[in-house]
Amino acid sequence: MRVEEAIGRQIARLRAERRLSLTELGEALGRYLDRPWSRQSVHQAERGQRLFTAAELTALALALDTSVPVLFRAEDDRIELPRRVVSQEEYRGILLNRERDMPLDGVEELIIALHDIGEVLSRPGLARLARIARVAGTDHP
């Protein structure tokens, strides 16, 4: 998978989770960039058919209420760069602080894991199940 495709999949996933249309995300990006993105531009980005500037990645993170590293997450085993394919482990490593003498070494992994847990727990279906469980628990002591 190309890195642009990985970013595109994250944009699509986050947009769907936030229940934004292509047009709504494009308009939200316009609050941070020179102009909004068209529906087609958002669609191209989600399909991995767009190269991103640093400003666009920042605007996407802000509009989708996430972080830039989350936009780079990939589920594939390999990430294709123009001259080399890198492993999932190597790719994930660049998203985290790699300096060995940093006192917070490993905290980034924890933050990513907590973010993932938060995303799962915020899903509407899971919230409904929790409400059902609470109601069922109060009816039966």
TrEMBL record:
<dbReference type="InterPro" id="IPR001387">
    <property type="entry name" value="Cro/C1-type_HTH"/>
</dbReference>
<dbReference type="Pfam" id="PF13560">
    <property type="entry name" value="HTH_31"/>
</dbReference>
<protein>
    <submittedName>
        <fullName>Helix-turn-helix domain-containing protein</fullName>
    </submittedName>
</protein>
<dbReference type="InterPro" id="IPR010982">
    <property type="entry name" value="Lambda_DNA-bd_dom_sf"/>
</dbReference>
<dbReference type="GO" id="GO:0003677">
    <property type="term" value="F:DNA binding"/>
</dbReference>
<feature type="domain" description="HTH cro/C1-type">
    <location>
        <begin position="11"/>
        <end position="71"/>
    </location>
</feature>
